[in-house]
Structure prediction request, 461 residues.
Amino acid sequence: MINKILIANRGEIALRVVRACRELGIKTLAVYSEADEQSLHVQLADEAICIGPPQPGESYLKPDRIISAAEISDVDAIHPGYGFLSEKADFVEQCESCNINFIGPSSSVIRRMGDKALAIETAREAGVPVVPGSDGVVDTVEEATKIAEQIGYPVLIKAVSGGGGKGMRVAHNGVAFQKEFGVAKAEAEKAFNDGSVYLEKFINNPRHIEFQILADSQGTVIHLGERDCSVQRRHQKLIEEAPSPFLTEELRQKMGKAAIRAAEAVSYENAGTIEFLVDEGGNFYFIEMNTRIQVEHPVTEEVTDTDLIKEQIRITDGQPLRLRQEDIVINRHAIECRINAEDPLRNFAPCPGTIDLYYPPGGHGIRVDSHAYGGYQIPPYYDSMIGKLITYGRSREIAMDRMYRALGEFIISGIKTTIPFSKAIMQDPVFRSGKATTKFVEEFVKRSNMDTLIQSNHNLE
Ligand code: MV4
Prediction:
């Protein structure tokens, strides 16, 4: 029985876990850095322990400090949220050896899915379509060039320990490949302490569509539909929605079954996300598996009426899934806009500072997941996301119109945010037609006059 959970994270996801625990009657221990002493999750948790100075490397990324707090406070489990230590297999191994339940998959599954080449190999063996590419890691430029020529340019060189777009280089021909291969290996070595890379055919102008998975400890695996995350800027997702306006019911069924096969192939447990690329012809390819709850999980929650954090906790508590695949009926549409403390007119530069007026939108079909409040000082040490605005309704049209109205109501003064940028996208004909691919933001910015766009969509004065 889980009576107390340590939340090894901060910001909106820490608050999200506190809320789920409270509804389950589970006590919460917040860990926080000195910069987060006034943070909402610290105020709302039952207990709180300061684990160090503001720098993540001295606090949220320090396994020993998290585990010590867990021991001192005698917690039964740790929820990692996303980012920080959520996919660090070594940390999960430490929890396992200290007999503290980690709310997520086992360290061996995290390690295996963290090796992107091995994850692809596993998916391929499970009969899941993968991008044509090398058979695992390629070591020398000679070997790699031969394979690149077999695949056909353009070719992507990807870091085995990368993911989320980190450590990716594209080569459009043999000459470029000689240079890019070396650069990719050096960048991977520097970023991940592992220079191993693999090759994939470059899929032009894809959509980024991911399937939410839940798997219990009795071997039951279900999917909860997909999320279309194609509206991204430099691999940072900005707007996510469920279901995808691009998928046909037939394609959804095929991809959902493939996602379950991938999870079953590694005897996955807990919540996970299977990431696909979908090309213009409707061909889909597995590219990676994320072994954590994701930022964009609320759009899935709102279209399936589930609480994914509660499901994670129940799975860790050994309870069988009560949800069956036939219970997942999607007849709503949800859209999420990430609210970042960034200035769209200064190339989205992070803009920490103090929030003056804070007025979140409300009404039917609106959800705001945020730790922000009037007077909150946004620390400069962490990710710039200060919240998520989710709207949902019976149709995509209603969800989009509701998002536009809600963004117009959202008052956050004293800092710059991405609200006006998201508001402009909500009115854009390409986005509204459901035709946005991973190239959308780049093309949208090119055809917009950012100054006019931001001024005309600004909510204040
Ligand atoms: C790709 C791809 C095209 N072809 N792989 C980016 C992050 C990670 N999730 C995988 N990603 C991609 N992998 C192949 N073989 C396109 C993406 C991609 C992307 C690439 C460039 C710019 C924005 C992008 C957004 C989503 C996915």
